[in-house]
Here is the input.
Amino acid sequence: MKIRQIIQAGALIAVIVLSGSCKKRGTSSTTGWDYNNPKNGGFEVRAFAEQQTGPGLVFIEGGTFPMGQTQDDVMFEWNNQARRVTVASFYMDETEVRNLDYLEYLYWLNRVYGTDYPGVYRKALPDSLVWRDKLAYNEPLVEYYFRHPAYRNYPVVGVSWVQANEYCAWRTDRVNEILLIKKGILAMDPAQKNENNFNTEAYLAGQYEGLVDKPLPDLNPNGTGTRKVKMEDGIMLPKYRLPTEAEWEYAALGLIGNTSYERVVERKNYPWNGNYVRTNESRYYGSFMDNFKRDKGYYMGVAGNLNDGADIPAPCGSYFPNDYGLYNMAGNVSEWVLDVYRPLSFYDFSDLHPYRGNIFQTPVRDAEGFLAEKDSLGRLKYRDITPAEAMNRTNYRQADNINYLDGDFSSSIASEYWKNPPKDTSGTNLMYQYGANSLVSDHARVYKGGSWKDPAYYLSPGTRRFMDENSATDYIGFRCAMIRVGGAIPGK
Here is the structure.
């Protein structure tokens, strides 16, 4: 115990010396009070140089681009009319999430929750039965595609939009946990069980302790001398999540390679230049740029001269990257994005960081205003904001904004219902007549890009399709994204 106190005292002295050696950064320009000085209250300002690039991510410099249709609308869907939007800089996975990555996730869930909450593990399992076809023999894929080591680097499929979001949340916690371990703040704790597991939000809220190794010194003279990491320290990363539709399309096009003096000199139909699906590079001349279905019954070519070399998904990272260094943004598997689908989204989106699907929430608190105790899985509890809480706001007035301007009751074309309003006052089912004339609902999610079983038309990043958020297929996977905090360009 004495040794620990000596170490903590030494760390405290080091912080004080460091703050005193940098006068310009160590003093407030608005109050004149010193930062990092326990004698005047101990307000801390820790050094921060740059957001760390999370594991598996590639930096995507943001900007403006014409989002939407880049070729003839042969399906006559009219759901992707081009318009200009701006996307902030962000990070995105270099490849789709692999079977190996998802198996790591399942192993952790089973190890932590398997004994007392086995349903958590079962709920996360991908649907291997998506490979079945009434008139094809695909049972070997049902049995082996997800778990056999021969397929470990192939993209995971059979995962719903809901499951993909759960994976993103889990990945956030595992990445932040290992960052704290590498900093020496926490010690490795493989014995985590049930609610006693590292969750980023629970840790920041003081509801997870963990195996503390070397806590940060607390300069607050009224404190205990040590403290946990805070978001202000800049050690932990923002959340992994699915990319928005605009982010995905922007990253897939990779127009950064076609930009000169703030002008896009050549627009793209695909993530590569030109109107063809083969490369003209002399070394690989004539090779297919990605994995797709060339024609009916034509998945990989003729023996001895296979075109894309894959009758089903190919290993992640196959074929050619685009100008951002991202692989398989055209084919291999289609990918879930964050947005709720609306056919008229291109008319009613914001032109800055466009996205449809916001449901604004707030942490659950007790009668005294303290955060409620985390749930049985170790996560903080959230609830939708109430109309009373949003009453005086000018930027939103309710929690659920999925239907805003398109599907809400006030925008419904079914004017005859105004006199006798139905129970479904959201208006979505009225406007789109779910189950009768369309499958559009508040649970319809967008997926982007072509896949191994799609024709070349769907390789264009502007094409968009949708499916219920709880559905899964043998041709839809996903990749994760993360916001870039601070400057739009690293180091600036």
